[in-house]
């Protein structure tokens, strides 16, 4: 696209450099059979890279947000590990998606101390529990929606520093797309945006990952706080039709009506670099559905690119939709099935992220 050649967006530029490096280094630290195909296609496709993001570490393939799942994605070869952070009562940054401890995912084992009045912990709000209480949980259950995912028996909820340490063990140059999992409409059920920013950035800086991280949120109050504290970190605006709407509690200083419902104009006002919409409305459509349409269709992506944005929709698990989204010009895709998306990229002759062993 003309606009993309005219002005390469900073995050896209970083990903492009990483992809070119991955092609050149594919034989180092990688047993991937896709390495040679990536190298052979580099001359024709190096200018076009797709950010392969493993949603919750690849929950379609392994227990979601488990260290094991993240490790498998690192070994497979992904561009970015996508993850959620919820803060406990004592402000530990745990890698967890839900505001509560979900009974479909976790089981109690024992109270952290005898007679703990909060026990059992399953069903409780995470922000009302300490990290010590969280550590007692067994969160290795098979999810009905992902029957083929490998279950990590006895799985313990991980923390952000633990994930950084895991990646360092492999010398992995992966990126991290970190979501502040704030409850925008039930604000007493989570820590404040400022607490999220302080804790997450503290962990990021302690691990020397500032240049590898982007911060995403549905609660747009978070993003200006990140910009103020760490201006170099890319900001990702998440939304779907339940958050981008009139009188929304999710959009911070951006008023839906004041921008005429134009989410790209709203994101420009917010000052983010990456647009990350739910890929379809309603969510979960496939190309076989009569009224299938991408939110980030070609016209959307071209306009976003012309305004300097990167576009990374979520969460796409269907191969035909993956291909349609790539055809529309998206810069990346968040998926529960990184193996599946990696194969799509290979089939299209696109550069593959580096695998680590």
From TrEMBL:
One Pfam family name is GDPD
Q: Which residues cross the membrane?
A: none
4Fe-4S found in the keyword field = no
Could you name the domain of life of the organism this protein comes from? Bacteria
Q: Name one GO biological process term.
A: lipid metabolic process
Give the GP-PDE domain ranges.
Answer: 50-345
Ranges for region Disordered: 34-64
Q: Name one GO molecular function term.
A: phosphoric diester hydrolase activity
> What SUPFAM superfamilies has UniProt attached to this entry?
PLC-like phosphodiesterases
Signal sequence span is 1-26
Compositional bias annotation for Low complexity: 34-47
Q: Which UniProt keywords apply?
A: Signal
Q: Which PANTHER family match?
A: GLYCEROPHOSPHODIESTER PHOSPHODIESTERASE, GLYCEROPHOSPHORYL DIESTER PHOSPHODIESTERASE
Q: What is this protein called?
A: Glycerophosphodiester phosphodiesterase family protein
Source species, please?
A: Williamsia herbipolensis
């Amino acid at each position: 696209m003309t606009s993309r050649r005219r002005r390469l967006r900073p995050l896209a530029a970083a990903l492009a450099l990483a992809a070119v490096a991955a092609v050149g280094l594919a034989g180092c630290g990688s047993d991937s059979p896709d390495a040679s195909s990536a190298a052979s296609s580099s001359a024709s496709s190096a200018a076009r890279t797709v950010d392969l993001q493993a949603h919750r570490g690849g929950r379609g393939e392994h227990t979601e947000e488990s260290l094991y799942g993240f490790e498998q994605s690192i070994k497979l070869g992904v561009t970015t590990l996508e993850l959620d952070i919820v803060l406990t009562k004592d402000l530990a940054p745990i890698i967890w998606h839900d505001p509560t401890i979900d009974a479909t995912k976790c089981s109690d084992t024992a109270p952290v101390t005898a007679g703990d009045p909060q026990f059992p912990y399953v069903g409780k709000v995470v922000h009302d529990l300490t990290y010590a209480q969280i550590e007692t949980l067994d969160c290795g259950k098979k999810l009905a929606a992902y029957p083929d995912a490998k279950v990590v028996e006895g799985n313990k909820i991980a923390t952000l520093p633990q994930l950084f340490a895991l990646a360092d063990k492999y010398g992995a140059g992966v990126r991290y797309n970190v979501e502040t999992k704030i409850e925008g409409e039930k604000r007493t059920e989570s820590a404040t945006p400022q607490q999220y920013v302080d804790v997450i950035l503290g962990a990021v800086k302690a691990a020397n990952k500032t240049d590898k991280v982007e911060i995403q949120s549905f609660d747009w109050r978070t993003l200006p706080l990140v910009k103020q504290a760490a201006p170099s970190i890319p900001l990702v605006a998440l939304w779907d039709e339940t958050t981008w709407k009139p009188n929304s509690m999710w959009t911070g200083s951006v008023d839906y009506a004041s921008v005429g419902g134009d989410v790209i104009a709203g994101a420009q006002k917010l000052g983010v670099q990456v647009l990350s919409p739910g890929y379809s409305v309603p969510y979960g459509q496939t190309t076989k559905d009569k009224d299938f349409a991408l939110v980030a269709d070609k016209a959307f992506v071209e306009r976003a690119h012309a305004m300097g944005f990167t576009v990374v929709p979520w969460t796409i698990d269907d191969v035909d939709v993956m291909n349609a989204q790539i055809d529309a010009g998206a810069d990346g895709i968040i998926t529960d099935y990184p193996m599946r998306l990696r194969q799509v990229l290979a089939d299209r002759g696109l550069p593959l992220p580096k695998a680590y062993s």
